[in-house]
Design brief:
Blueprint: H1 8-20, E1 25-28, E2 32-37, E3 40-45, E4 49-50, E5 53-54, H2 58-72, E6 80-88, E7 94-96, E8 102-110, H3 127-143, H4 153-165, H5 172-198, E9 202-204, E10 214-217, E11 220-223, H6 231-234, E12 235-237, H7 238-251, H8 255-269, H9 278-295, H10 302-310, E13 318-322, H11 329-336, E14 347-350, H12 351-359, H13 374-393, E15 398-401, H14 407-420, E16 424-430, H15 433-442, H16 452-461, E17 469-472
Parallel strand pairs: 13-15, 13-16, 14-15, 16-17
Antiparallel strand pairs: 1-2, 2-3, 3-8, 4-5, 6-7, 6-8, 9-12, 10-11
Helix pairs in contact: 3-8, 4-5, 4-9, 7-8, 7-9, 9-10, 12-13, 13-14
């Protein structure tokens, strides 16, 4: 069955009319049209030739339909069904998968419910959804193919040129300052970026991981619509991939959501060294959105402000939140984290999560009692302080979330702050036993394995924490 490639305008017009016959609705973008009918979504690639995508030939549209199917089945296999071909019928019209000459290729997807996009959900997003989303992204990145990439420098220079060309409407002085700040941050972190590339942190990622390309299907997050048309855009550092989501959350005003996703991702991926890169990655993502907004006629200068804010250093400090199980340490830590600079907020290092990581299991997996010996706990606390020191040296504030039952454990945290010359605050949470027991009994799907018996043992072991600020958490 030979393929023809007649003038694309005529072919696309014919295919558009054919697909529109049975469509209930059509969603159009600058590079595609999606035809919605019952439980089916048919995606037609528009015959465009732009600086970053070339769908101008029939062969290219076939290739990229097949590539889109292959890539998106990594994360959404139930959503992406097949590539279908419109062929020339004996009557002269079009038909599906006939013996005639192929005229157009279409990607068939399962139609998802209206309102299923993460971008359509009310804010703030539920913590459980955000944790599962971070887990989903981390698992995807762990399995993604290790590749080589062009690096961030071409993106930064491309952004700089586009932003300068957008003055006006953007303020030229503000753009010049932002471009200088981004270049300085890149120069500072270039050695780390190079080390990460050699270590396999550059992978064939999603490439366009904002909230409009994430679904909530039956309450579960699903990544879809990854970039298939540009390997340059998708062969990137995994944290640069994550940064699009973080930037989107920040731009929508959900700072707590951004902090939670970033912390959970680092918890499950153990990619601790990459934390220092997140401000640069967020800023670059925001710069892209800024100049794209101009191209779309929207002129959203908020993205420039976000980018500049992301690169603004903060004053690192160390906080420690202690108390028996059930007092709300993790709740307080999550509430405090987004208030710290730089984006996406303070690094929360939780002993319960770290204990699971050291054991090689997921945070919510229960561990045997042997994982809670005094020696095992000493290793957890030592590792917690090691991570905190690295993050503080990188310019991030850290919140230590642990019981801190013994005075020696609290003293070691305070000593770290003294040694690094950063401010320290210790918060000791407490509540009546009846309240704590009720919370522990009701607790589900949490990194802590503590129950009522553990709480009673903690009460016996706890040494007075008068040196820390006392917080009634009842």
């Amino acid at each position: 069955m030979a393929e023809a490639d007649p003038p694309r305008e005529a072919v696309q017009a014919e295919a558009v009319a054919f697909l529109a016959r049975d469509a209930e609705a059509v969603i159009s973008t600058h590079i595609s049209r999606v035809y919605l009918a019952e439980d089916v979504a048919l995606k037609l690639k528009r015959a465009v030739h732009l600086p970053y995508v070339d769908y101008s030939s029939l062969a290219a549209r076939k290739q990229f339909c097949e590539r889109e199917l292959e890539l998106n089945r990594r994360t959404a296999p139930d959503l992406y069904r097949r590539v279908r071909v419109l062929t020339r019928a004996a009557s002269g019209g079009l038909e599906w998968n006939g013996p005639g000459v192929p005229v157009e290729y279409v990607l068939e997807m399962r139609r998802f419910p209206d309102g299923a996009l993460l971008a359509a959900q009310p804010l703030p997003l539920a913590p459980g959804i955000l944790r599962e989303l971070a887990d989903t992204i981390a698992a995807f990145h762990a399995q993604a193919e290790i590749v080589s990439g062009a690096g961030l420098a071409p993106v930064i220079e491309g952004n700089a040129a586009q932003l300068c060309a957008a003055c006006p409407p953007f303020d030229a002085e503000a753009v010049a300052a932002l471009n200088a700040a981004v270049r300085a941050a890149y120069a500072l972190h270039a050695p780390l970026l190079a080390r990460r590339a050699k270590a396999g942190k550059v992978r064939r990622c999603h490439g366009d991981l904002h909230m409009g390309n994430i679904l909530l299907l039956e309450g579960r997050p699903v990544l879809f619509d990854c970039i298939e048309f540009s390997e340059e855009f998708a062969r990137i550092d995994v944290l640069y991939d994550l940064a699009f989501l973080l930037m989107d959350l920040l731009h929508r005003g959900d700072k707590a959501g951004a902090a939670l996703v970033a912390n959970r991702y680092l918890d499950v991926s153990a990619d601790e060294e990459g934390l220092v890169l997140l401000p640069l990655f967020i800023a670059v993502r925001a710069c892209i959105r800024a100049h794209v907004s101009v191209a779309q006629g929207l002129v959203n200068a908020d993205y420039l402000t976000l980018a500049a804010t992301a690169l603004r250093p903060g004053q690192p400090c160390l906080l420690a939140v202690g108390g028996c199980s059930g007092t709300g340490k993790s709740t307080l830590a999550a509430k405090l984290a987004p208030d710290f600079s730089p984006y996406p907020g303070a690094r929360v290092v939780r002993s319960d999560v770290l204990r699971k990581r050291l054991a090689g299991v997921a945070p919510e997996t229960r561990l045997p009692e042997s994982a809670y010996t005094r020696e095992a706990s000493a290793r957890v606390y030592a590792h917690m302080l090691t991570l905190a020191e690295a993050d503080l040296r990188a310019g991030y504030s850290v919140i230590l979330d642990a019981a801190f039952l013994r005075r020696a454990e609290r003293d070691e945290a305070a000593a770290l702050a003294v040694r690094l010359n950063v401010p320290f605050q210790g918060h000791w949470l407490d509540a009546p036993d009846a309240v704590l027991e009720a919370r522990l009994t009701a607790r589900r799907n949490d990194a802590s394995d503590a129950g009522v018996e553990v709480l009673r043992a903690q009460r016996r072991l706890a040494e007075p924490a008068a040196e820390w600020r006392q917080v009634l958490a009842g």
